[in-house]
Structures are given as structure tokens and as C-alpha cells.
Task: inverse folding
């Protein structure tokens, strides 16, 4: 496809004409407020299919389709691009302005929260990192809303990076849980909790705490809360994040429950993770079979 140049003229209703030059990169400047009207092309040496850029093709197609009731022009609009990289020298005045804030931030992000006794990873149906964050969520929700919070659930997509063996820094908490998601507690019937377990089965497992299940294809079976089978007539309290209750994710049970009975806690999921690690000092990667294939052995 060659780069084309050429003049463009079109005539609108009432004999109004528009002219311009197209050279690959163009912008349109409207000189009136009248809606576009039907036109008849007079001369168009640069067809839309020959335009060097999508923008030029769009303008050419627009010119062939209609003109404004008042005149407008098409003109070349060259753009100067500056590559940003290590070759650019920092501006001394800006560096001096932000240096104190950078130093303060680096100090805060370098705070040691605790120690990881091993590497933590996400996995399906159960991962060591999934378990760590879900346990932190349940622990934090119970600290604020009471021990009547029975179970916890969050989406694996909200957990962004692994946690490596060694010191766990505040920086790692922000990298792990970068979203400003608040903890929310919902009240679910036993029947709703069973439906939620089936929705979790469709995704082949998610971070949970306080309950267990087995996956039989797309169904969850042998679902238990605190080791006991679900009582369909009982009300259970589930800790999650507001993103999943406000329409995020795919779990419709949470959307419906959030419209009826929810308790929004004034704490971020990241903050409950920080508190959890600080309280324990050392955290150890653990797989306990909280989600496993049907018929699998207990761990």
C-alpha cells in the first residue's frame, strides 16, 4: 500500500464545497455546526483504500459519504514523537521536587512484614498462595465482624504475583494485591452457598477458607463448612471483596446476595493480608485439600 498525496473536493447540498489535502496523517476541523449532509464527490485521487493510515482512510470515507452544511477543511497534521527511555536525562528541578517523597515511599515499601518459609504460588484447584490470602481474608473479617463469619472467598484473578521464600516486604503486599478492594460480608442461605460452590466448580477452583468441597466435573460435591455438611436451612456469613459483590467476576450468587444483606467493612483486602503476616511472623506454604477432585484423599 503506497503513501498517497492528493487534493480532495466535495460538493454538498446547496453547492457548498469542501477542500483539503490528504497526506497520510490528517485531522478534521469543523467550521460550522450544521449536521452532515449528502454530497457528490467531485474529485478524489486518494481513495480510502489507498490511505496510508487508518485515520486517513476514515477521513477519505467520510469525505465520500457526506459534507457539512457549512464548509470544513482537511489538513495534514504532522506529529513529533519523542521516545522516552534511559537516554533522557532527568530534569534536575523535577528530581529535586520529588526526591523527598521517593525516599519516604521507598522506606515505607521496604518495611519487613514477616517471613515466607517457602515459595507461594497460585494453582488449580488449590494453591498455596490462594490458601494464604483466603486465610488472611477470613481472619481479618472475623476480627472486625465477629466469629459469626463462617467462610471466605475471593477471585484468583485479584491475586497478581507469587510470594517468594524470604522476607515479605510491604512492597510485596502492594504487588500481590494492587487493587483497592474492600472486605464485604454477605449472608447466604445454605442453598445459596451450595449454588456458589457449583459456580466455583465451573472455574476449577478459587481461593477459599473455612469450607471445603470436591469437584466432580462442573459440580461441587461434599461441600462442608467447618467440617460439617451444609445445612440448607441455615444462614452462613461469607467474607469476600466488594468488587465481586458489585458486579465483578461471574458469581451471580454474590450479586443477588449483595443486593439484600451486606456488611461493608472499612478495610482493604491488602490491609488484612498485611496484618495477618505481621501477626504470624512466619507463614508456611500449605495445601490441605480444601478444594480437590471428587474421590481424592484427604490431606
Result:
Amino acid at each position: 500500500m503506497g503513501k498517497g498525496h492528493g487534493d480532495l473536493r466535495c460538493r454538498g447540498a446547496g453547492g457548498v464545497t469542501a477542500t483539503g489535502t490528504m497526506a497520510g496523517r490528517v485531522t478534521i476541523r469543523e467550521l460550522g455546526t450544521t449536521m452532515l449532509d449528502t454530497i457528490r464527490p467531485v474529485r478524489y485521487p486518494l481513495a480510502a483504500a489507498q490511505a496510508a493510515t487508518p485515520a486517513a482512510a476514515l477521513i477519505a470515507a467520510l469525505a465520500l459519504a457526506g459534507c457539512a452544511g457549512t464548509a470544513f477543511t482537511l489538513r495534514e497534521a504532522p506529529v513529533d514523537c519523542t521516545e522516552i527511555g534511559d537516554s533522557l536525562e532527568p530534569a534536575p528541578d523535577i528530581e529535586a521536587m520529588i526526591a523527598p517523597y521517593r525516599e519516604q515511599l521507598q522506606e515505607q515499601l521496604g518495611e519487613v512484614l514477616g517471613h515466607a518459609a517457602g515459595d507461594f504460588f497460585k494453582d488449580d484447584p488449590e494453591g498455596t498462595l490462594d490458601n494464604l490470602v483466603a486465610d488472611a481474608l477470613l481472619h481479618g473479617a472475623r476480627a472486625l465482624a465477629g466469629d459469626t463469619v463462617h467462610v471466605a472467598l475471593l477471585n484468583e484473578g485479584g491475586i497478581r504475583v507469587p510470594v517468594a521464600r524470604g522476607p515479605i516486604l510491604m512492597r510485596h503486599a502492594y504487588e500481590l494485591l494492587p487493587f483497592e478492594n474492600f472486605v464485604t460480608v454477605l449472608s447466604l442461605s445454605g442453598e445459596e452457598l451450595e449454588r456458589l460452590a457449583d459456580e466455583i466448580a465451573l472455574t476449577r477452583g478459587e481461593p477459599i477458607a473455612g469450607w471445603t468441597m470436591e469437584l466432580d466435573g462442573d459440580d461441587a460435591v461434599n461441600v462442608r463448612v467447618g467440617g460439617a455438611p451444609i445445612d440448607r436451612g441455615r444462614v452462613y456469613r461469607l467474607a469476600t471483596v466488594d468488587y465481586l459483590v458489585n458486579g465483578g467476576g461471574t458469581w451471580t450468587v454474590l450479586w443477588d446476595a449483595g443486593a439484600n444483606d451486606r456488611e461493608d467493612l472499612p478495610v482493604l483486602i491488602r490491609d488484612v493480608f498485611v496484618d495477618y503476616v505481621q501477626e504470624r511472623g512466619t507463614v508456611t506454604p500449605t495445601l490441605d485439600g480444601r478444594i480437590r477432585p471428587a474421590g481424592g484423599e484427604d490431606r
